[in-house]
Amino acid sequence: MNIEHNKHLLAYNTFGIDTIAEEFVQINLESELMELLHYANKNQTALHIIGGGSNILFVHDIKGLVLLNQLKGMQIVYEDKDIVHVKCMSGEVWHECVLWSVAKNYGGIENLSLIPGTIGAAPIQNIGAYGVELKDVFVELEAIHLRTLEKKIFTHQECAFAYRDSIFKTKEKGNYFILSVTMALSKQPICKTTYGTIQQEMNEMKVDAVSIKSVSDAVIRIRRSKLPNPAEIGNAGSFFKNPEITLVQFEQLKNTYEDLPSYDTVNGKKIPAAWLIEMCGWKGYRENDFGVHHKQALVLVNYQHAKGSDILLLSEKIISSVQEKFSIQLEREVNIW
Ligand code: FAD
Ligand code: NAP
Question: CA dihedral in degrees (44, 48, 51, 54; nearest 10)?
Answer without folding.
Answer: 180
